[in-house]
Sequence to fold (86 residues):
Amino acid sequence: MANESINDFSVALNNLLKTVGTLAQQQVDLLNLGIKAAGQVIEPLVKTSTDLVGNAVKISSDLIGSVINTVGQLFQSATTALAPKK
Fold:
């Protein structure tokens, strides 16, 4: 009789630990899926942001190049105008 109750307790404890292990694994799986989903949501935003920054840098670079060209042409015109004519 005592043997049966120890055996029943052992089976119940085994089932309880198995259930706790399954629940823990499901929590880990759920957390993993949440992290993957967040990554999939953030990835396009980061790509778009990087593209926008790249375009802004290109526009700024083009603008600076244009300003430098204009200033260079201005100096060239001023030099030509001030140079003595032969």
Observations:
- The chain has one helix and no strands.
- Residues 2-82 form the longest helix (81 residues).
- The mean pLDDT is 84.
- The helical segments are 2-82.
